[in-house]
Amino acid sequence: MDYSIETAPLDELQCDCIIVGVYQDQQLSPSATALNNSTHGLINNIVSRGDLSGKNGETVLINAVPDSKIERILLVGLGENKPLSGKDYKKALLAAVNSLKKPQIKSVVCCLAECDVADRDLQWKSRHIVEVFNDAVYQFTHTKSDKETESQIQKISIAYRDVGKKHELGAVSFAATEAEWDLTHSGMLQGKAIAEGMDLTKHLSDLPGNLCTPTYLAEQAIELSKKYASLDVKILEESDMTALGMGALLSVSRGSRQPAKFITLSYQCGDKDAKPIVLIGKGLTFDAGGISLKPGAGMDEMKYDMCGGASVLGTLLAVAQLQLPLNIIGLIPSSENMPDGDANKPGDILTSMSGKTIEVLNTDAEGRLLLCDALTYAERFNPEVVIDLATLTGACLVALGRVTSGLLGNDDALCNELLAAGETANDTVWRLPLWEEYQEQLKSNFADMANVGGKDAGTITAACFLSRFAEKFRWAHLDIAGTAWRTGPTKGATGRPVSLLIQYLINRT
Ligand code: BES
Ligand code: MN
Ligand code: ZN
Questions:
Q1: What's the pLDDT score for residue 146?
Q2: Which 3 state secondary structure label does DSSP give 480?
Q3: Which residues line ligand 1 (CB under 6 A)?
Q4: Among 91, 261, 303, 368, the one annotated catalytic
Q5: According to the model, what pLDDT value does residue 149 have?
Q6: Could you give all domains of the chain from N- to C-terminal order, each with its CATH number?
């Protein structure tokens, strides 16, 4: 998608559609007022006839504007005429972009950065427009044989979220005055970097397990480091992992024909002696559950078990593009979890890289087996903080649904920074307790700990398990099982929590 800034008067701009906001009670935004004047009261006419109440999320597309060079106008309801919350702003933007799914609409001028959003400046608003618009036009066509023509099924109209209808939108311009140019521009560049990072995350996540293997993920990391000189990559092979004693990780990949890979990306643009921020992403390119096999229904969605890893790659892409003055290490332990004659069996006891032993009571709790060795490996970077991202527990869906990601950690300041960054980015997290009492559930009669803690508090006991390998640094864990992808008719990756992470990193600069 192309982004640009226009400073000329609205009725002189060349585009397929101009997007302006209208508040409740027939109150027009400044741009809507300007267009209303140059169109002899067209907008007031529509509003006073009751065709647009101004409720947030409502839209009206004006397809023809008499006696004017303007092709189309999209009116977007903004709700009450007062500063919008960040959430309501996103809602209005989504409604706007989703009503532009018409082959005729390829370029738009967006005037929604002018509306007041509580505690947010023009830079944030421009950035958010890019993020939301880019997210909405994303389509995964890589594995469709005919990438251009809509398939038969897509032609059937489904009421729910306009499933299948395509966007042709390829260019978005921001209307700005000369004085607004700088903030609009910097927000636009931030948005573009985040959008590109999210596109990579979504693309890798949506790829099926037969194409996106641990080897493929490693190749993508190598590609990324070729594209950005500031990114260095190192891939550990299984033999390297054996030498390091990563017994927990290797026990999972032993059941798969695909070799495990351990990806390290290094970005060093901060102070020479600043300790790095380490991001760890779970990279299970397919999780069948192993010998504790998952039920068949919905198992395809376990191709998304590498979304944490994909988010690390997308985040580092955006970081490199924004040239943030930070030191960051990205770690992606990657494997499949399959049933096999050589796979982990319930009751097996493993020795992790830390030396701690683990009794595998359920082979489907494999993510923590990869992450525990990655956490131990992270020690060698002497990290400032470690944040892991993982589609770790189905229990997180039960607790928080698909609205917000789970957050657990051993450091209140770090958790609060992540909570705040999520709020700003409209990519929220919600903290769950990591109290001592829950650790008891991991008791094993035969090893230092069990890999599962029973049916109660599954998200917390998973984090309790990880916490035992994160004692040497400040650490937070994001359980993205409910937020990394959508299920149902709009099944697809969301790119979360890339924008949260970028916000957190920007806040640290
Ligand atoms: N990748 C899954 C978690 C998951 C399941 C994410 C469904 C999203 C949707 C993870 O490896 C897993 O299987 N966890 C088990 C843990 C259990 C055995 C303690 C789970 O959640 O069932
Ligand atoms: Mn599993
Ligand atoms: Zn898993």
A1: 81
A2: coil
A3: 287, 305, 362, 364-367, 391-395, 452, 458, 481
A4: 368
A5: 52
A6: 2-176 (3.40.220.10), 194-508 (3.40.630.10)
